[in-house]
Design goal:
By secondary structure, the protein is mostly helical. It has two helices and no strands.
Length: 39
C-alpha cells in the first residue's frame, strides 16, 4: 500500500500525460478501425 502510494506520487507528472496520450491513441485506433470497416 505504501509503495503503491509512493509510486503513484513520484511520477505523477509523467503518468497523467501518458494516460491522456494512451486514451487519445486508443480512440484514434478505434476510429481507424471503424473507417476501414466502413470502406
Amino acid at each position: 500500500m505504501v509503495f503503491r502510494m509512493r509510486s503513484s506520487l513520484t511520477p505523477a507528472g509523467f503518468i497523467s500525460p501518458s494516460v491522456v496520450l494512451s486514451r487519445k491513441s486508443s480512440a484514434h485506433l478505434r476510429a481507424n478501425v471503424q473507417a476501414s470497416m466502413a470502406n
